[in-house]
Structures are given as C-alpha cells and as structure tokens.
Amino acid sequence: MSEDPKSGLGRRRPGLGRGLSALLDEVGPGLGEDSNAAVPGGGFRGQMVPISRIKPNAKQPRKRFDETAQGELIESVRRQGLLQPILVRPLDGGNFEIVAGERRWRAAQAAQLHDVPIVLRDLSDSEAFEISLVENIQRQDLSAIEEAEGYRRLTGEFGHKQEEVARLVGKSRSHIANLMRLLELPAAVQAMVDRGEIAMGHARALIGTDEPERLAKEIVEGGLNVRDAEVLVKGPGGKINSRRSGAAAQERDADLVELEAHIKDATGLLARLKFDGEGGQLTIRYRDLDQLDMLVARLTATNI
User: Fold this and answer.
1) Is 84 exposed, middle or buried (0-12, 13-18, 19+ CB in 10 A)?
2) Disordered: where is this region (predicted)?
3) Residue among 59, 285, 87, 265 at smallest CA distance from 154
4) What is the topology classification, in CATH, of domain 5-136?
5) What residue spans define the domains of the chain?
6) Among 140, 212, 231, 253, fewest CB within 10 Å belongs to which?
7) Assigned CATH class of 185-252
8) What would the pLDDT profile of 256-302 be if each residue is shown by its tens digit?
9) 125-138 helix and 144-156 helix, angle to the nearest 10 degrees
C-alpha cells in the first residue's frame, strides 16, 4: 500500500488493540521488536531524519531503563548503526515524538549518531499510548506499578473499560483489576515495588492492611518470601481490613481467613466473612462500577 509518509495510515483501523506489529506490517518483518538485530530480507522502508528532531514522550509508561542492557545496546549501535527504525508521530515545527523505540533513540544519542531511521504514523494520544504500553508489556520491561499506572491512564484519561484494556494487552480482566489495586498502596510502598525490593505478590498481600509501610519494611528486612509475607499480614496489627486490637484479630477463625483469601484471589476484591455458628454474611468491597461489573460477570458465568 503506497502512501505519503505524512498522511498516516490511509484506511484507519480502530485504535484499541491494533498493536505495534499491525502498524509496522508494511514496513518490514521484525521491526516491532526493540532490539538492534539485523532485519531479515535487508533493510526497511522508513526515512532518515536528524536525531535532534526526535523528542521523547514524557508520558510513556516506562520510566526506568536497565543500565546494563542499555550499555550493550549502545555498543551494538556504535558498531552496526541503528538497524531498526523508531516509530514516531508528528509534532509541530517539523519535529517528531517517540511512540516506540526510546531505548534505540537513547542508544543512538549515546553513540553520537546524527541521523536515525523512523517510521512516521499520525496517531492520536490514545493510540500512541496504547502502542507504547503494549510494546513494553510484551517485552516485560515495565514494573508492576508502571503497568498499573498505564492501565489507570487507559481507563481514566482515555475512557476504556477494563475488559477493553484486557483485550488490548492480552491479559485477563482480573489481572488488570489486581494490578490497578496496587495503586491503592502508599507511594512509599509503590516505590519499593518499583525498585524491586518487594514483589507484586508481597504488594498484593499488603492491600487493605492498617500499616502497609511498616509491614513492607518488615518484609524487606526479614527477606520474607510471599507466603511468609502473607503470614505476617495475617498476624496482630496486620490483618486485612481489620481495625481491631491484635488480641481480637487473633480470635478470628483461621478457616474464615483462608476463605477470604481464596475469594480475594478469585475476584481481585477484598472480602469479609462473618459466621454466627450456622450461617453468616459475606461482604465484598468494590471500588467502582467496572469492578462491580466484573464481579457480576464472574458470579453469573455458566461454569459456576
């Protein structure tokens, strides 16, 4: 399909779920991968522009770049040049904003390249962010918090429902909901997840606790695995959603606690069981209508 590079994609397809590989189908095989490997068949059908005209996207999902991996990419670019183009969209003044390929752009700067290959596409803010998020998730470059923030932006700023986001990134809706709930944790705990001091499993155990920062520090200082962290959280002062004293918390039946954990794992939502000897009450907390819709869908599924 021939087109003026400045004209965009020609026939526009729905942005949600289009993905990086679909956008680059016309350009050449393998160009959606953020590496500097040689392109099968030789070259690409992009264009060369001065690197000074390419600007990073301040709102791209990934905020951290592995220094070791980036150093290896810089050396590769110094030896071979930039073999894969950077996906960009137009800005005012003849400049371009990176949609995918910031690692390559950074490496090209460090290698002191003057011109770099680009693929130019006319993309909306939502489309550009979707592509950037999908690319980083596929390459597993995002921390759990970065991924959760990306989902929150898609649902909040761009108005996508959680099930739409799940289809976009190829994940389950419960995965989306569980990750977004990590953003309920204090900023200090989120930073510990970002730095790799605690894992996503640790962080999930801390959601809804009275003192998540204190518990997170105990997890790090004790070198606890996720199972040990869950035991810690269920101890005095750490019981999920409990505002009672440590002695009262200890009185809760262990079977009820375990059932609550199973319900939380199955729904991604906090659950509370009360048992009066014969019957009881189950309370499940949801934050918004998307979470309620997800819960109703699970409860009314035909395989239940």
Assistant:
1) buried
2) 1-42
3) 59
4) 3.90.1530
5) 5-136, 185-252
6) 140
7) mainly alpha
8) 777 787 787 777 788 888 876 667 788 888 877 878 888 888 777 64
9) 160
